[in-house]
Design a protein that fits this description.
35 helices; WD repeat; alpha+beta; cytoplasm; six-stranded antiparallel sheet; phosphoprotein; 25% strand; Rossmann fold; Serine Threonine Protein Phosphatase 5, Tetratricopeptide repeat; Beta-Lactamase
């Protein structure tokens, strides 16, 4: 028998918060004015509305459950959950319109204001019946939480023989009989929900009204109560593709869900504003919202006010309106528009003139005629949206198909009401999706480059630098938007890494260049490709001039430009690029679950039957799912858990939520589960603890120590420092400024700026340095090369430094430096003279040349491929250019030797910092100070370490997964996944990937076809990651030190599933292909679990004695397990087959096993042992024989080992040229000899993986943090 849920546990609310019946008070109908209606004269004033009845869930309470064995009849005594206005209370009672104490009204619902909102135009008795009408409400509590109301108004005649106000069969004599003839009194039914189900609840109320019109007056309350009870029993659907359907008779009502946890629930027609306003006006209204003006909507249709306002707020997502939102103001509430703060309100059109005269500075939006005006003669300062974004938006809106009739023209007429509604709903869903994408693209084009001016480590936004990158005509818009609460919250979401629609679009829209730039450690400059496409328009020239200004200084005057139309002009389609046409958007597929019928009378037994039907239908739907339908399975778990909870079956609910926890963590209701566990009685808690899955869930969600205090999530605006800085503060300030992130480079900069001084930097020096850096950045933006010059350069080259005009042995001109070469930009007729690539330089000297009585400083560059020496009389710039060229030359040599392009990027950063240091200090010692940044040049001269020939020949490339971080991170695990083309994917999504597990649960993904970053650092838990495997081509399983297995969806790059059955660190994973495929996981305590990949359920479980289980391998149907002091062979069911113990076999050789590799063809077992520099090989034919040792020369520690073809690759630490380095030993498995000894990394080799047996990838420790790619022979 089901347990009743404890009283103190707040059950999850269904769709209904409150249902109320409202109408004119009985006293207001008694007055003398009522008599004049009989003679056809309209009442001069409105009647007083009030709440007549309130219905609040739950409608069946704990007392009812005690009668579960009784027949379904109305219980004789229950706690009252509905309330009727008592007619004998005086009108002056202060509780008028309030329920008794035993009826709890939800927060946010003000019963005193509710009658005015339900009858915003007043209450008038009509002489003839009027058409039913619906309007909508948004109610906000003091904390800003919103609830949503849908109100249906209808008229009922008053009859002599029945009383609507006291529930009795006859009127009392006090009612004047003569007055009742021809009287139609308005009433309203209001449904309040936490969710904005505008269309669904409108349909529900429409169904209710068909019943209310046919029932007698004394039956109205019962009908409304039954209606409210139905809604209260319907659970709200979780985010995702599953919508709920309920039969309300005669309509099938659809309750849609949110698309994902970060998206709002959309149950309205998003194209309504596009029918009411021209696209230019839509943009003006969006600008008013983005700049947080005081806005009032007007319409003669009450329903349009909230609907249109909600549509505009939906267009702004993921930005959120955070100010007062009252879309319906009754005539008694008009003084609200006098509020001095920002708001969004709605009034009837009748009050337009009154509001416009009484209040100043309002934006008045007339929905009926599509106009946008201001309430005062002096225009409110509302800027234009950026022009290019506006043009694209207008054309896309004009391309939308907004009329359903055009979509139906080729179809036959539907003879089924619900079929026609389904067709309309599908059309609306497609259109809503298109409208959302058009609006999102608008916001994306406006705010896309914000991320380039964010410092994520210190949560800083450099607003001044961002503003300088905006076109002059757009400056006013951005200045106003950047000061809003809405934009501040948007910044917080970016810095917190929220994966909302904006972030998903940013990821989707990334170009190859964006991904390449994400790997650069050096500052960005315009590439030759961008320079060639850039047009020298007046707008661009003025833009270039203005970026020279510095932060914290007075605004400069924006150059005069052609005047821009204050109201956005209609854009000719030919003016927009072809890429700005309407987006081709296909809505994601959705599914439905039909809620079972609810039987009446509504007593406990009937409700229990309803819950049982729900559980049965959900269980049936789950059993019919395909194995790979985990998205739907998670939604069914959520719904079934919610129904079990409402049913009072707490343990069953916890089991469903535990299954949900490992199926889709995004929709797991952690707070609800925590409250559920807290409400369990002692015996219930003990029973839950006996179930292993629930014990784990309770420990994960409930019993963990209190969460750490929430970190400061404020966003700071970058400001120049005002006090002296020690090293640590200087590092932080430089990182905040966005100049450099790498901590080691900033340490060198600190040394350069403090040469000969106390080791601290004063604010003036920092300001001078910052200004020098930004001026150089601005000059680089202004560089414009002739096409004849650009033809000689690669498209991705950038000009980083230009000298002043100097005399050279090739003529007069400016020396230009790119990341690849030096060239001379000749004067007069601009021309290109190649000086040298950095690779081709043989010698660089700074000398002097005699000219008359002077000695002119001259730079001489000797090339390897030319006999002629390049000479340039650089005068005062000579010493600086000498430093810079030598640093770039050294960086290029290191990049070539180590196959690592990061060296040239770091050298560029050093060079640009040298330039800024010299410009800052402007003293005789400035060049010496800048020499502190000649890091690679000193490395080349002081430590001329050559890369061994074997290493150089085998090494193909290096990449840096820590690019953009403040310091390098250790590469703990590597996984290569081959590419495969899925029709649902983008082409680049089908490329092979390299997955890199860094410290603290960070994962970076590279596109293995171009070795560019595909996904930069997303989090998988917070602990060290130990292992990764690919399962069924669409999942990556990650084992963590925190004992959880995280499952990453390869397509969405999201981790929504967690397997929590292990009790200690997950140390290895291995895949067994087949149908169904399996994954075996092991943990350090000796537990091995077998998982069905499709269902994510454990199919077998066994424990190895002794623990210390570090790795497993699958061979011939058996698992080979490395347990530290032994290697154990067990069947897939855990039966022991063989065991190799250290004490019996190799006790004199080593203390514990680290890892093993099996070579079935050679019948060999290879194992590495802790603390020894040899690998040991056993014959699989007889494990009792003493192993053969393969000695690794100069090796001090082995850390990882893999098999590639007929080779064993061993990674660890060893000596090279007298220093400890990360080394790789390549062993021929057949001959058992070391073929190659590779000097791989500056730090130990921590991870190895194979890429289709063609390449091996190695990851290093935190001292270097890079990945090397090696060729397999």
């Amino acid at each position: 028998m089901a347990e009743a849920a404890p009283q103190h546990l707040a059950l999850p609310s269904g769709l209904l918060e409150l249902c109320a019946l409202l109408g004119p008070s009985r006293d207001s109908l008694r007055g003398p004015d009522q008599m004049s209606l009989k003679n056809g004269v309209r009442l001069p004033s409105a009647l007083d509305p009030e709440v007549l009845s309130i219905f609040v869930p739950p409608f069946v309470t704990k007392e009812d459950s005690q009668m579960a064995g009784a027949p379904c009849v109305t219980p004789s005594k229950t706690r009252r959950r509905s309330f009727r206005k008592k007619r004998d209370k005086p009108k002056t009672e202060p509780w008028k319109g309030l329920p008794p104490e035993d009826v709890s009204v939800p927060n946010g619902v003000d019963l005193l204001a509710l009658p005015q909102l339900c009858f915003p135009g007043g209450v008038y008795v009509a002489s003839e019946p009027r058409e039913d009408c619906v309007h909508f409400l948004v109610l906000t509590d003091v904390c800003g939480n919103r609830t949503y109301g849908v109100v249906a108004q209808y008229y009922r005649p008053l009859h002599d023989e029945s009383c609507f106000y006291n529930g009795k069969a006859h009127w009392e004599p006090s009612w004047p009989t003569a007055c009742a003839a021809g009287c139609f009194v308005p009433f309203a039914v209001c449904v309040v929900s936490k969710l904005p189900y505008y269309n669904a609840l409108k349909d529900c109320l429409s169904c209710l009204l068909t019943h209310l019109k046919l029932c007698k007056d004394f039956e109205v309350d019962n009908h409304i109560k039954d209606f409210a009870a139905k809604l209260s029993l319907i659970p709200s659907p979780p985010p995702g593709p599953l919508h709920l359907i309920f039969n309300m008779k005669p309509l099938q009502i659809v309750f849609p869900s949110r698309a994902d946890p970060e998206s709002p629930l959309i149950d309205l027609d998003l194209h309504l504003p596009l029918l009411c306003f021209r696209p230019e006006k839509v943009l003006q209204i969006l600008t008013c919202l983005l700049t947080e003006q005081r806005i009032v909507f007007f319409s003669s249709n009450w329903a349009l006010l909230p609907l249109v306002a909600e549509c505009f707020l939906a267009y702004l997502r993921p930005l959120q309106w955070q100010h007062t939102f009252v879309p319906v103001l009754s005539h008694q509430m008009l003084d609200f528009v006098m509020a001095p703060t920002t708001f969004l309100m709605g009034c009837h059109l009748d009050h337009f003139e009154e509001v416009s005269k009484e209040a100043d500075g309002l934006i008045l939006i007339n929905i009926d005629n599509g106009s946008v005006t201001c309430s005062t003669d002096k225009d409110v300062d509302v800027p234009d949206i950026p022009l290019l974004a506006a043009q694209t938006f207008i054309q896309r809106v004009q391309s939308l198909q907004l009329h359903h009739e055009l979509d139906l023209a080729h179809l036959g007429t539907s003879t089924d009401l619900n079929e026609g509604r389904t067709r309309r709903r599908a059309w609306q869903q497609r259109l809503n999706c298109q409208v959302q994408q058009v609006a999102l693209h608008l916001l994306f084009s406006i705010f896309r480059e914000v991320k380039n001016h964010l410092n994520y480590e210190h949560r800083v936004f450099n607003s001044e630098e961002f503003l300088k990158t905006r076109a002059p005509g757009d400056q006013q818009f951005y200045r106003q938007v950047l000061d809003t609460y809405m934009f501040h919250s948007f910044l917080k979401a970016r810095l917190s890494g929220r994966m909302d629609a904006f972030a998903q679009m940013d990821l989707h829209m990334q170009s190859e260049e964006d991904r390449f730039n994400g790997m650069l450690a050096s500052p960005r400059r315009p590439t030759i490709e961008k320079m060639a496409s850039r047009k020298s328009s007046p707008l661009h020239i003025a833009h270039r001039r203005m970026v020279v200004s510095m932060p914290n200084l007075q605004d400069i005057t924006i150059p005069e430009l052609p005047a821009r139309n204050s109201s956005l002009r209609k854009v000719d389609a030919s003016e927009c690029s072809s890429g700005s046409t309407v987006l081709s958007v296909t809505p994601k597929p959705t599914y439905t679950f039909k809620i079972p019928e609810i039987h009446f009378p509504l007593v406990s037994q009937c409700v229990q039957a309803y819950y049982s039907d729900c559980v049965a239908l959900l269980s049936k739907a789950m059993s019919l799912l395909a194995p790979d339908s985990s998205v739907l399975l998670a939604r069914y778990f959520y719904l079934r858990g919610a129904v079990h909870l409402m049913h009072g079956q707490l343990l069953d609910a916890l089991l469903d939520f535990q299954s949900l926890y490992k199926t889709d963590i995004r929709i797991f209701p952690a707070d609800l589960v925590r409250r559920m566990v807290g409400s369990l009685s002692g015996p219930q808690r003990a029973q839950a603890e006996r179930v292993p899955e629930l014990r784990r869930l309770i420990s994960e969600v409930v019993d963990k120590p209190g969460e750490a205090p929430k970190p400061d999530d404020r966003v700071k605006n970058f400001e120049l420092p005002r006090k002296h800085m020690q090293l640590d503060d200087f590092v932080k300030r430089v990182q905040e400024s966005g100049i450099v992130k790498d901590t080691s480079i900033i340490h060198r900069l600190f040394e350069a700026l403090t040469v000969g001084h106390q080791k601290q930097i004063d604010p003036e020096t920092f300001k001078d340095f910052y200004n020098c850096w930004k001026e150089a950045e601005a000059e680089a933006q202004e560089v414009s090369l002739p096409l004849s010059v650009m033809e000689h350069l690669d498209k991705n080259e950038c000009v980083y430094k230009l000298s002043s005009s100097v005399k050279t042995n090739h003529g007069v001109g400016k020396i230009a430096m790119t990341q690849k070469r030096l060239f001379l930009l000749t004067e007069g007729r601009p021309g290109y003279v190649e000086i040298s690539t950095f690779r081709n330089i043989e010698e660089v000297r700074s000398t002097t040349v005699a000219f008359l009585l002077l000695r002119i400083p001259t730079l001489k560059i000797k090339m390897a491929s030319k006999k002629e020496v390049f000479e340039a009389n650089l005068k005062t710039e000579c010493d600086l250019w000498h430093l810079m060229v030598k640093e770039m030359w050294a960086g290029k040599k290191l990049a070539d030797d180590h196959k690592d392009p990061q060296y040239i990027q770091q050298a560029l950063t050093h060079v640009l910092l040298m330039d800024a240091v010299v410009g800052t200090l402007q003293s005789s010692g400035a060049v010496y100070a800048a020499s502190k940044l000649s890091y690679f040049d000193k490395m080349k001269s002081e430590m001329p370490l050559t890369v061994p020939k074997t290493t150089s020949e085998t090494l193909k490339h290096r990449i840096n997964p820590s690019a953009g971080e403040t310091f390098p991170h250790a590469v703990d695990v590597l996984l290569y996944t081959p590419g495969h083309l899925d029709p649902a994917e983008k082409v680049e999504d089908a490329h092979p990937k390299l997955w890199c597990a860094l410290n603290e649960g960070k994962v970076t993904v590279f596109d293995a076809s171009s070795w560019t970053i595909y996904q930069h650092c997303f989090k998988v838990g917070t602990s060290k990651l130990n292992c990764m495997v690919m399962a069924e081509q669409n999942q990556v399983w990650v084992g963590s030190e925190d004992s959880v297995i995280y499952i990453i969806n390869i397509h969405s790059m999201s981790c929504n599933k967690q397997l929590t059955d292990h009790r200690s660190s997950v140390t290895d994973l291995v895949v067994q292909n087949g149908t169904p495929s399996k994954v075996y996981s092991c943990s350090r305590d000796g537990t091995i679990l077998a998982w069905n990949v499709s269902t994510l359920r454990v199919t077998s479980r066994f424990q190895l004695p002794g623990g210390r289980l570090s790795s497993i391998s699958l061979h011939d149907g058996c698992l080979w397990c490395c347990t530290g002091n032994s290697i154990v062979v067990v069947t897939s069911n855990g039966l022991l087959c063989q065991e190799l113990k250290i004490s019996e076999n190799v006790g004199d050789i080593c203390t514990s096993f680290l890892s093993l590799q099996l070579l079935p063809e050679q019948e060999q077992l290879w194992a590495a042992c802790a603390g020894f520099n040899s690998i040991y090989v056993w014959s699989l034919k007889d494990l009792t024989q003493r192993p053969q040792a393969v000695h690794l020369q100069d090796c001090s520690e082995v850390s990882c080992m893999i098999t590639v073809k007929q080779q064993i690759w061993v990674g660890g630490t060893g000596l090279s040229q007298g220093k400890s380095k990360g080394k790789i030993y390549v062993i021929d498995a057949e001959r058992k000899t070391v073929e190659k000894e590779l000097v791989a990394h500056m730090d130990t080799v921590k991870a190895l993986c194979s890429a289709e047996d063609r390449y091996v990838l190695s990851g290093s420790g935190g001292g270097e943090g890079k990945i090397a790619i090696w060729k397999v022979e």
